[in-house]
Write a structure and sequence with these properties.
The chain is an alpha+beta fold and about 400 residues long. It has two domains: about 5-175, Creatinase/prolidase N-terminal domain (Creatine Amidinohydrolase, Chain A, domain 1, 3-Layer(aba) Sandwich), CATH 3.40.350.10; about 180-410, Alpha-Beta Complex (Creatine Amidinohydrolase), CATH 3.90.230.10. It has twelve helices and 17 strands. The strands form four sheets. It has a six-stranded mixed sheet, sandwiched between helices. A five-stranded antiparallel sheet has the order 12-11-14-15-16, sandwiched between helices. Strands 7-8-9-17 form a four-stranded mixed sheet. The longest helix is centred in the middle third of the chain and has 24 residues, at about 180-205. It starts with a helix and ends with a strand.
């Protein structure tokens, strides 16, 4: 008699839930294999959530990143430079999931007797496919797997006669330029971010807690089709507004306090970032004026924003503005980073720029997306000016897709 588990494994095929069509995934795989050939890498082993998603669409809620030692993270994707299809390896627990969240045609599930640790199975399967020859690339700068498991994989490849090299940037560099479909998702994410910021504005009042505001932000964005952001969204009030990365808490928001809110709208794992400062009551004129100086940098950015803008021009122009209006000595952090695919615990992309990059020759080509953060310590210990926006570079124009006004919003 067939048991229930075997019936599920044999017959359960949920409808596909993929963000892109087959042509998009095929184009990505071809670009990766081209880069592999250029770097003389025969086998690429991928375990970071971002890379697994980029290649196959793979998403899940649990990546075993901080699991017990008995449950090591060993699922991943193997790509061979000369083979048109990749291999997805995963545990029996995810056998059904792999069928509808990925475009994978070759899915190999660990045996039940080694379901928690698939390294030996993976090596045997790759060996039987004649994939274990030449040079292997691994993502040495990824948190997944942890150093112990990463070393085990490295040793396993080396034992099979392969040279192991760090290929962390191979896919990251390809992801720098987004396709039209990816750009469209980020524009949808920006609309969701606006909805989150509006929910914050409508919820803020004396007597509510930071967590209540946080909850309303998440509720509003979820109703709009937004997904879980890759960083827990901060709602920071009072003295906490002088910090940037604290957690929302049960702290009760009071009159005459600044509240900083940072959100990312997320659509098919693509992020658009926006942050704003609010004030409960009426701030001092000095505080209001200072916030205006900080937020007005985006008017300067809009005056130079275009596809092909260089990092050096953006940095030099904005820093000169800050110096001219006299607030540069109060800088907290000013700069930005790449946006796009994000999974917890981070939405910060691979590329980052800061105000020291005045000689950078890097260009914001069409298809690139970054944020810009204008954070300065404002007068009277009131808090950091918390103005962050997304810069989206398209083929014929560059835009700031969020519509929420960039100013200190006073809640009366």
């Amino acid at each position: 008699m067939t048991n229930n588990r075997d019936l599920v494994f044999a017959n359960c095929y949920p409808d596909k839930e993929l963000a892109f069509n087959d042509a998009e995934y095929k184009s990505r795989l071809n670009a990766i294999r081209k880069n592999m050939a250029q770097q003389d890498i025969q086998l690429l082993w991928l375990m970071s959530p971002e890379s697994m998603f980029y290649v196959s669409g793979y998403t899940c809620e649990w990546y075993q990143a901080q699991s017990p030692k008995q449950w090591p993270a060993t699922s991943g994707i193997a790509i061979h430079v000369d083979v048109d299809e990749f291999i997805l390896f995963d545990t029996p627990s995810e056998a059904v999931m792999c069928r509808f969240v990925t475009c994978a045609q070759d899915i190999r599930i660990f045996p039940m007797n080694s379901r928690r640790d698939g390294i030996q199975f993976i090596m045997d399967e790759l060996d039987s496919s004649n994939w274990l020859c030449g040079k292997t690339g691994m993502e040495m700068h990824s948190y997944r797997p942890n150093p112990v498991i990463s070393k085990r994989f490295e040793s396993a490849f080396q034992t099979r006669g392969m040279e192991v090299v760090d290929s962390s940037d191979l896919i990251r560099d390809i992801r720098w330029i987004k396709s039209d479909a990816e750009i469209a998702y980020i524009e949808k994410a920006a609309k969701i971010a606006d909805i989150g910021l509006t929910a914050a504005k409508n919820t803020l009042q004396p007597g509510v807690t930071e967590l209540e505001v946080y909850g309303e932000i998440i509720n509003a964005m979820s109703k709009a089709g937004g997904e879980n952001p890759s960083i827990t969204l901060p709602v920071l009030s009072g003295p906490k507004a002088n910090t940037g990365h604290s957690l929302s808490s049960r702290r009760v928001i009071q009159n005459n306090e600044q509240v900083n809110v940072d959100v990312c709208g997320v659509y098919n794992r693509y992020h658009a970032n926006g942050a704003r400062s609010f004030y409960i009551g009426q701030p001092a004129d000095e505080v209001l004026s200072y916030h205006e100086k900080s937020s007005n940098v985006f008017k300067v950015i809009e005056s130079i924003l275009k596809p092909g803008l260089t990092v050096s021009e953006l940095v030099t122009t904005t820093k000169s503005y800050y110096e001219d209006i006299g607030i540069w000595p109060d800088a907290g952090w000013v700069g930005g980073y790449e946006l796009g695919i994000g999974f917890p615990p981070d939405w910060v992309g691979n590329f980052v720029y800061e105000m020291t990059d005045t000689n950078s020759d890097r260009t914001f080509e069409a298809g690139t997306v970054v944020n810009f953060e204008s954070q300065f310590f404002s007068p009277e210990l009131s808090g950091i000016t918390y103005y962050i926006d997304t810069l989206l570079f398209k083929e014929d124009e560059a835009i700031l897709p969020l519509q929420t006004p960039r100013r200190l919003v006073c809640i009366e």
